[in-house]
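Local shape tokens:
==================
===
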Amino acid sequence: MEKVKAPVLARCSPMIGGQPHVPPPPGPMWTPPPLAPPSAAAASTPLLGGLTAPRSELEPDVPTDPAAVLDRLVATIVDVRSALLASIDGFGLARSCSMNDEPAHPAMLAAAMGLAHQLVAMGGGDRLRQLVVEHDAGLLLLWPLADQRVLAVLASHTVDQGQIRSFVGAHVAALAGATP
């Protein structure tokens, strides 16, 4: 039997001191850059590892808001703690409500991706598909998305990485910034 958290799609509002906490509106750090207008060339959606799939093969009820996708990821996959979507140049684009709003996080992701690409080249590879960093508090999983974005997921050591990868693959259109 598969372990699955109860699906929660609404933005979280944890209780603090008996009163519901309403998180402050995202600052300018979380304002995504404007997307390019749709074109005929955008007939397919970029997937992980540079693969593409026609949009018709994607789930019809996939949320288009990246923050909602990240919240769904945290809510539905057991042992996932939080998630962050950033541009490869270090700007935050979206985060799950369980992720701290730290301006340094997207910058650290950009630095980690730069180092990871150098390590891939040093090892004779030409494409980074996934980076997993194991540390005493759990795992940091990083995926490059559509050459311009990076997804970071914080999880425990016991998380089913295949389940996360399947989830990300099913929601890559919203995460990579593809327009419907």
Notes: Residues 6-10, 13-43, 50-59 have pLDDT under 50 and may be disordered. The CA atoms of residues 22 and 154 lie 23 Å apart. The longest helix spans residues 104-122. Residues 63-180 form a domain with the Beta-Lactamase fold (CATH 3.30.450.30).
